[in-house]
Structure formats: C-alpha cells, structure tokens
Amino acid sequence: xxxxxxxxxxxFLNSLRKRNRRIELLVQSAGMLFAAIFVLGIGAGFFAGALxxxxxxxxxxxxxxxxxxxxxxxxxxxxxxxxxPGINFREIARYPVSFRLYVVLNCAYGLxxxxxxxxxxxxxxxxxxxxxxxxxxSLPAAGILLAFAAFxxxxxxxxxxxxxxFQSTRKGRxxxxxxxxxxxxxxxxxNMTVINWDRxxxxxxxxxxxxxxxAALNRLSPPGAAxxxxxxxxxxxxxxxxxxxxxxxxxxxxxxxxxxxxYLGEIYSDSFRVRHELKVEPGWRVPGLxxxxxxxxxxxxxxxxxxxxxxxxxxxxxxxxxxxxxSRGATRRAFPFAGQGSTAMLGMMAGFLMLSVANMAxxxxxxxxxGFGRWLLAPVKLQNIMLAKNLTHAILFITMYTxxxxxxxxxxxxxxxQFAGITVSFITxxxxxxxxxxxxxxxxxxxxxxxxxxxxxxxxxxxYASLLVIAPVGILAGLITLASRYLGWTWxxxxxxxxxxxxxxxxxxxxxxxxxxxxxxHIEEIEQTLAK
Amino acid sequence: xxxxxxxxxxxxxxxxxxxxxxxLHLVVERRQFYGFLGPNGAGKSTxxxxxxxxxxxxxxxxxxxxxxxxxxxxxxxxxxxxxxxxLALFERLTGAQLLTFSGRMYGLDRAxxxxxxxxxxxxxxxxxxxxxxxxxxSHGMKKKTALxxxxxxxxxxxxxxxxxxxxxxxxxxxxxxxxQRFISRGGTVFLTSHVLEVVExxxxxxxxIQNGKLVAGGSLDELRTGVKVAGHDHSxxxxxxxxxxxxxxxxxxxxxxxxx
Lengths: 532, 260
Known about the structure:
The structure holds two protein chains of two kinds. By secondary structure, chain A is mainly alpha-helical. Helices cover 77% and strands 0% of the residues of chain A.
C-alpha cells in the first residue's frame, strides 16, 4: 500500500514539472480548500442535526443522514472517478501479489478515496452526537456504523469494478462520460421544472402517495437497517442488525467474485462489424468556400459529432431556452433578465450561448491530439487552418442563435431595431472570443480525452481567461444599453455594435497572426502537450 | 547528371544547451532510397522534423526540390509526403475519411481524392476496416494508413520516420512493395530505421549520424570500402557490422549484466 501511495505521489510530483501544470495545481488547490471547508461544515451539520434529532425524539432524521452518507459514498467516487490521478486498479493484478492481498489493497484503496474519507468523518460526527445524547447507544452504534462503513466500501469497490469494466473499451468510456455529464445537469433541469410546479399542481397528489410507499420500504434499505439496528427495540434491533450484516456479506461475496475474475486476467475489448463493401464518400463541399476550407470544416464537424460531451453542453442552453420560453413567472425570474421582457430575454440567451464558446474556441487543437502535426505537414498556412476551425465554431453558434432569435422574433415580437442591435453585438463578441481563443489555443493548449470525465475541454487558465474577456465586453454592452435608454437613442446599440464589430474583426486577424507565429516558434512544445 | 532533390548546409538545431543536430551537410539525389541511421538520441528524428517543416532549425539551410524550405514551405510541403514519428493521424476519423481529407488538404479535388482513397485502402488491405475509426486500428494498420496519407497526392519525395517499427511481417511487406514501386516511378525516399536488415535490403544510400553529426555517408559499397573491421575476413561487411564499427556501440561480453 505504501508503495502504491508513493507511486501516486511521484506521479503527482512529475506532473508539476511543467509551468501550465503548476498553475493548474494552484487553481485546483483553491478548489480543494473549498472542498475541505465544505466537508468540515457538513460534518458540523451532521453533529448538530444528529444531536437535535435525538434530543427531539425525531430519530427518523438520523436515517436521512445515513442516506446522505450512503449516496455520497456510492455516487461521488463514480462521478469523480475520472478526476482521480493515475492508477487503474486492474493493473495491480499484474504484479506478484496474492489474491487475498489484492482484495485487501482494493478495499484500502477505496478507503483512501476523498469521498470515503469525508463519509467516515461525517459518520464519526454522527456517532459523537449519539455518544453525547444517548451514551447507552454509543457502543452498539459504533459496531453498526463500522458494519455500515464496511458495506459501503465493498459496495463502492463493486460499483467501481463494474465501471472499470464498462470503461475498458473506448466506446464505454465515452458513453460513461456523457452519462455522468447528463447526471450532473439533470438536477438543475429538475429544479427548473419544480419551480414551475404551480402549473402542474395536479401531479402532486399521486407523487406524494408514491413517496409514502417508498418511505415504508426504507427499513429494508441498508441505511434504514442501520438506523433500526441503532435505535430499534430488542427484536427489531436484532433483525435489522442481521439484515445489515446480510447486505455486507452479499456485497463482500460479489466483490470477491468480481475481484477473482479480474485477478485471473479477465479482459474486455471493443468488437467491430466488418464491412466487406468498400464505399468511399467524396467529402463535403461547403458553398462559397474552397476545397481545403471545406475539408477542414468537414473534419471539424465530424469531430464535433463524436464529441457527445460537447454536444450535451451545446444543447444545454437550448434546453434552458425551451424551458424558459414555455414557462412563465417563477422559472423566468430565476434567470437574470429573462423575466424583464422579450428583448432582455433574447439578450440574456445571447450571453448564455456565448458562455459555451470558450469550450471550443479556447483550445482549437485540443481534440486533434497526435493529429496536430498533420496541420503542420499540410501545404496550407496555419492562419487558414485556424480560420477554418473558427468558421466551424461560428457556423454552429450562429445557427444556435438563429434558432433562439427566430423563435423570439416570431412568437415574442422583439422590436427589429433592438433585435439587430443584439445580433450585431452577439457576432461582435463571437469574433472577439474566437480571436482571443486562438491566442489561448496557442499559449495554453490542452489535450482533450473524450473518454475521461476529468479531461476538460480547455485548460483552467484559459477557461477563466475567457470570463475575463467576456466580462468587460458585457459591462460595455450594459453601459451602451443604459445610455441608449437614458438618452432615448434606440439606434445606439446597433451603431455602437457595428463600430465595435469593425474593431473586433481587426483584433481577430491580429490575434490570428500572433497565434500562428507563436505556434511556429513552439511547435514541438505544443505537439508534446497535445500528444501526451 | 543526377538531380539533387534534398540538400542541407550547416544544419544545426539546439535545445537549450543540448545540440541535437550539428553542422549537418546532406545531399540526396532523385530516385535514391536514402537510409538515415543512428543510435537512439543521435538526432535522426530531429533532422527529419526539420526537413519536413515540423521543427525550425537553429541555423543552416534546407533546400528541397531546389526550393528553400524556410522561404517556400507551402510549395515544398505540397510536393513531399511524410510519415512522422508519432504518425500525426486524426484518429477520430475513419480510415476512409482520413485519406480523403488528406488528399483534399493537398489540393486534390473530391472525386480524385475519393478514387485514390479507394485504391489505397485496397492496396493496403484496409478495405474491410475503412469505416472504423483510426483510433481503433492496430499499430500496423495506423502505420499503413499514415503511409497511404503520405502518398495520396503523389509526392516526389517521401520522408519516413521509423516506418517499420512495430509493424508485423505482412504489413512490412506491403509497405516495402509500395516504397519500391514509388522509387521505380522516379520518387525519392528518405527514411530512418532501426531495422538494419530492412535498410540494407532496401536502401541504395546510407547516412549515419551520431551525436548530431553525420559520421558516415554514401552508397553501401562506398561504406564497405571505407570501413575496416579488425579481424574480419574478406566477406562483404553487413550493414550491422558497419554501423557498429562507425558508432562504436558493441559491448564486450563482460559488460553484460552479470546477474542475468
């Protein structure tokens, strides 16, 4: 185990040899500090909540805390599986370790997961509250909580094992990343739907009866059994304890079976359909563009089509727009400006769409990875290649904006002058983002791995930089809008937008040349960053 | 008179204090099959990267097909084909899409690119996998795809960095067939390889680089004449013997790991 920890530490130290990684570490350290404060805060909440629930004889509240532990322990490591550095536990089986040691290492490794550590800390807080308030319960509670922790470890390693099995193929990894992303955005969409609940109040009564039915089954669940084993009467306590130990035993047996298969060398691989008829498509021809630019745009769209994670991120603003457009009242007020009339909502949606631009434009070579070198081998100027990539992104965002603006124009009657002002501003900011994005793509390239949830589409630094770019532009747009309202010059946003657009185009070509020159001077460095 | 297609003068590349290539003078003529050899870290890949525009030289001059690479890089790139060290493939395209794309990047029209892609996929035994993503290809299939992408536009010179590394015998035979055909049609090949037997069989001319400097060069016969191996009988020297003599890399038996 010490050897494993040492390898993990060395991987971490080696990753700090590059300046980019050191800055990324600083940003991550800030995140870890917040996470630590969060865990400590929740721990205090656990202590206070458990204390109050026992004192007020509302023992069922302890059950909720145990459910929080259970869900956190099982789901968080899966959600953050891709974020942990380096060791695929499956690889440990290659070394001369006995099966027994392999299983022990597997469980110990699971216990070293940050989510597991946080859960153990919260359970300790819960137990301390029991010790303070009901000392007579504390000793059996310690045993029950230990059994509950053991069950969680076995269950979690079992799930991680299944996840590794699913992720051992490229397609599985990519699908998993998309599933996790959808899982992450689903709560927000549910929240928006629930805010709009008043329009669907007829659905509340049946939902309540289902919830009561589910609650009755809680005693049979692992957290419910743990609660009954701690707080139940004599017979109930014994049954619940046996139930919890049963869960633990089953999880241990399943984990042993799974670990045995991995230990004995179980491997998985992609399988493919073999095509016997060779048919080569000639490729796309984009109207108005030359052969080479068309080819690059086709390649970029083919890459985008496979990037399901990015597609989810791109569809997300449109889903939000659909929810906002179909709702009234509370849901719209939950979004800034959305409840202040159709023009404000169009402006808000334009800004919302703009936030996604950085995901693509600030790391234009990220998905090319090893293929980056092919751009340099081609008899085409790098400026033209980047321009074609930017055109792809522009086509995508302008199409999305057109959908939103079209719906708003037809159904919400946005005044034409204001519509033109917002449209020109949208294009201006898009051009600025693409231009600055090219520079950041050269300065801070980042390899994007679609099969890794942890693999961001842009580096942290570039992501924050995009906000720094968009913030002053947003402030300027706000000032122009205010001035237009104050002075009564409705034409001002459009005229100012056109002037800024001219400046943005100039800035774009300047940054395009700067980026291309920088890449030529740092080819090998960039190639290594994207390939490794 | 033989036409010089590749020429370098005092080519140098430094990475900080390390000089990877130093004062390199190379001359390669049309229809030559030029093998560029050297031990690991000798500067082979750095040289080929500079010759193909993937790396800027610190100093010196490169002329390819009579043009200065620095000043006329787009035109030079149009007339050469490259299989670089990392293959540089867009792995999220299928084999067929990648080849069509490569052809179009070199200015072929869509129909010609599709036609040549079909022929190359058939020739390389990749037709059955043409709709698979390159990411899912085996290493040998990727090598064949990279070579197909390098020749699709009909280049005059091919630069190949370790084309036979990690390739099985069947794939290697296909690659060799293609290269010999290319030479017979007036092409020139510049390759680096560690597989000395293959180089000996294929190459007409050889250059050996060590510590960034060209330490031997010429046709195989010229190298055989120039290199003397102590205690060797009168049979012709193999390329391996010449190579080891030039770079001085042979270890004595007593130097071998005593515990193994």
